[in-house]
What does this fold into?
Amino acid sequence: MNAYQSLEAHFREIANFQHASGILDWDNAAMMPSGSADVRARAMASLSVHIHKLATDPHIPDWVAGAKDESLDQWQAANVREIERAFVMNAAMPTDLVEALSKAASEGEQAWRSLRAENNWTDFKPYLDTIFQLCREQGSALGDALGKSPYDALIALYQPGIDSKDIDPIFADLKAFLPGVVGAAVERQNAAGKPPLVPAGISIESQRALGISTMETLGFDFNRGRLDVSHHPFCGGATGDVRITTRYDEDSFLDSLQGVIHETGHALYEQNRPQAYLDQPVGEAMGMAMHESQSLFMEMQLARSAEFIEHLAPLIRQQLAPSVSPSDEQWSARTLHALSTRVEPGLIRVNADECTYPAHVILRYEMEQQLIAGGLEVSDIPDAWDASMQDMLGLSTAGDYKDGCMQDVHWPSASIGYFPTYTLGAIAAAQFKAAIDRDIPGVDAQIASGDLSATKAWLKDKIWSQGSLYGMQDLMIRATGKALDVGDFKAHLQRRYL
It folds into this structure.
């Protein structure tokens, strides 16, 4: 067995343990009884330590050096590159820190579920104190190895190749641009009058059936995945066994449906990665900004478009109100489109419209920068959150921790550095749609008829099947002709809302 073959075999074993970890993590969020939290946290911490030991095996640098002298094809060379990058990051992390982070994240997520429901910041704060202390240590260790600031090193865990120096000017541009768009869109929509509200009291069973039908329309493979319920929608599971979740509200079926569509975008990426390299680093998705681009492409670019809603409206009516006349305006495509594109500043990020959504992300990004750098302490979070919400969206969260700083699972689960990928993904999604419009004449008419084959074929060819063969910016250039650029996103918002 040569050096490259040794690397492949070793990382195939790591992938098998990651598969087990992914299913345990999904079960922790979706199915596990709350009384099992302690033993599960210990088990997942032990598994994380074992995976970390495999990922920092002292043979890896020698295998990498040997493989570089061998005759490798493009995919194999990229696999060695990704293995070497991951080794540097993994080797920078002490085993005890890996174990402590895993345990704290598992315990923090479990505590968040009950304490958020109680609006209990006092008892939640100690969990965040532990998380941010550990993440500061993590950022410092990774930053020393990568030559980055601690926060940039945490971003690199989720999206390689992007730093705060790249993000800051994009977010500054959006902070200046979005208030005008939001104000004009709200004024325009108010002048047109509110659309009729879809009736409340839609059963969870009916909503689930609609979600499954929509997932099938989008192309989700139920032979290799499933839909469940969790406190916070997510896409998880493992390679070849993709699990997505949503949460239901009988008085707001559109929220759960959009959650399903968003997570299906993630799942389509996972189910269509390069088959020959599924158990190798080069076969993994190209970072979480790219992953979020796929979920936001499906949710925002596709599912909130007038064309797709034209196709979706009869399905919604059939599943949720089969006795209603097709001419009922409450269930018309026009009404559903108006409701799906309603611009209204709100407290909850996952329910936000696409004009105000970036403000939620920028708020968290700026706070994370300060929390990791030490300019902000955990005890300062509620007041800082309230001040930022008032500044960006004109809303107060004073005393409302549940819908304020406790609303997301990311911080209690130690996912610090993830938030900027959402808006970077939205920008990339708009760029992809603009490229698809250029490359596929008449694509919107196809979408209106329910034919997504050309759109999905483009995404599979340009994004899904490429894994981590290229870096993010190279992938953007190959797919769209240019690096990540906020221009298409701004133009999209102006077209749709103004």
